[in-house]
Give the backbone structure.
Amino acid sequence: KDKYKNKRCFIIATGPSLTIEDLSMLKDEYTFGMNSLCKIFPELGWETTFFGIQDFNVYKALQSEIEQLKTTILFCGSNLKQRYSLPDNAVCYPLDLLNHTLHPADCYKTSYSSDCKLRVYDGYSITYSLIQIATYLGFSEIYLLGCDCGYSGNRHHFIEHGIVDPSFDTAQKRMFFSYEYAKKYAESHNISIYNSTRGGYLEIFPRISLDKVVGVK
């Protein structure tokens, strides 16, 4: 807790707007990667500072790549332990699913954790879990990248992992519901969350260009 107090970090999602050029600007920053982003690490030449994954099917599709991670701090949802033998270096966070399966698809439910040792609330995406972990670690400036929250073409991800979300049609509404919780928590705890995604549909957080944040002219 608070190990990175008052520092900034970048949470890198896998939306189709993300580019390898974006990633190349973040080598010396504190970064959180997730899901299929690990497939680009060999080409990139470095791993994100932290890396998160919690979906059963996505983990299965990426298991060989996950097991080859060397330097990142690997955060895995505790639900994965039910099905997989996780790497020895995995840090399991207690994912609270809030009994989502007992609610209709259009009845959303989440919360926000101030103590990730006890629980990390499911907010319908790994990005939401990593925002909670980032604030627990003390980061006070959080920049979201690749959070398209919608798809205008055939590509759904920066790098595909072959898993299709069966509830794709309602994914945006679910994510927006949870991001509103993150926004309220951040505003009440002197934390700034910005959206540096190039395009996309997420307007809950103020936008600021990645080029401006990292000082690219």
